[in-house]
Amino acid sequence: xTDYSAVPPAAARPYASWISRVGALIVDxxxxxxxxxxxxxxxxxxxxxxxGETKGAAFQLTGVPFVIYLVFAIGWFVYNWVIRQGSTGQxxxxxxLGITVLSATTQQPIGGGLTFARQLVHILDSLPCLLGYLWPxxxxxxRTFADMIMSTRVYKA
Length: 157
Fold this sequence. Notes:
Elements: H1 18-43, H2 63-88, H3 92-97, E1 99-103, H4 111-125, H5 131-134, H6 145-150, E2 152-156
Antiparallel strand pairs: 1-2
């Protein structure tokens, strides 16, 4: 766990690069993709009708396997983003890539509630055309719309 009592002031902390933020997101997404893939291959409905045509989407996940995936995905989100990032400033992906999310004013992790709100505000980053996710590439503080709204910054750890 990082000791935030000895962190340098905001002006002295370098901001995380856009590519490290994307890399952390990819790493954080791997567990849900793996679970979805395993469940879909093992239990996916790849039914074929009598004419040999696939009925509906190939490997559609339904029923109990879908519920298992949904419970896992929600649990992973709550653990990794809400609890872990809320208390330490880092998801597992952010820790692996050496970046951290902190309040711009206090230089401390923002807590679970505000982290959950920040994740919801990321919806605005998708509108229009993922513009908010690209914004850090030209913003001098490398911020997404969610960072601007929630007063957070992503720093190199």
